[in-house]
Every structure is written in C-alpha cells, then in structure tokens.
Design goal:
alpha/beta, Leucine-rich repeat, LRR (right-handed beta-alpha superhelix), 9 strands, F-box domain-containing protein
Amino acid sequence: MDPLGFSSLRILTVSKWSYQDYIPLVQVLDRLTLPALKELQVSCSREDLLDSDDTFTAIHNLLDRSGPPPISVLHFDHAEVLAGGFLNVLRTCPTLEDIRLTSVNKGAIRGETLLQLTLKVDGTAPLVPRLHILHISGKISFDMRTFVNMVESRWTLAHVQTPPLRRLSEVNLCRFIDADDGQDEAKDEVEHITVLSALEVYKEQGMNVTLGTKVQPKS
C-alpha cells in the first residue's frame, strides 16, 4: 500500500473497538508519516483482552519514521507493550511531556526504563527532560522502590540539571491485581503501599500524586 503523508497534522486520536469487525489499525499506522504530530492518543479494546503488542510497535515505528515529530502527548490504552518498547519510544521522542500508559501488560514498563528516567547529578543527559505528567496502570512487575526513586529525582533534582528541567508534577499509578491471588498478593500490596507512602511528602509540596489498586477477575 502507498504511504500516507500528512505534513501539517498535529493531533491524532484513534479508538479501536474490536467486537466483531476487525479494524486494521496496525496497517494504517504503518502507512502514516506525521512530521508535525504533537499529540497521539490510541485506545484499543477487545473486551477483557489486551490488544496485541503489534500496535505499540507500530506507534514507535510511526514516530521514528516521522522524524521524529515534536510530539509532547502520548496516551496509549488497553494493549500489550513489548519489553523495551516503551524505552525505545522515550529515546526516540525526547520532547514528550505527558505520557499515559493505561491498562497495559505486566512487563510493559521495566525497572531499566525507570532507572533511565531517574535524574542523575553526574552530568548524564536526562531522558524526556520535559516530562511533567506520567500515568501508569496495569499489572505491574517493576520494583516500587525504583519507581519511587525515579519520581523523587524528577521532583527534587530537576532544578540542579543543566539547564533546569520541568518537574514531574503529576503522577498516577494504579496496580491491577487478581481477586483470587490470595495472601501473597495481599502481603505484597501492603509492602507496596509502605514504599509508595514516601511520596506523601511531595504531595504536601505540591505534586499531584494518585496511587490506587484495581481488583479484577483473574483472566
């Protein structure tokens, strides 16, 4: 199929509802080139099933193929993300400011990605320096202490970077747990809450922090 180039398109919102009719979203994304894209929102739905990781891979390929574009907003919902796929997007698009990965699979966001997002004081160039909104929800496998350290660094060390960075001012984390995972899951949840409570002090300083848990039927 011929490529589709839209040189001035700045906002693209796509919703995929796959109950009966198949919508070839990946094939559409694979044809697009959007050099002026500022906002991309993709929502997938296959009832209780996550859409395949092909969609997020196609998004990364689109962004890479487009320049990358000066994209600041990326929202992605209800689909799988390959291990390393999210980090690839962050490296490709340093202009990102508002990132929301919601209802994603376990392993979509790895500890290595959080470490790369953590600000340093040794002169290391920061990843996505304008990031100020981060929403994550789904089955989470990364270490909560690593997550807290990343958030803390984006709040406390932003001003000591050269040049100074924008603070991570809004964080929303929702962990999905299965209803019948038993006592081990409950114990882990208590430990996670204890670790995440360290962010309360930054709420008092003005950070918008929302932490939650969603109990769902085991798939």
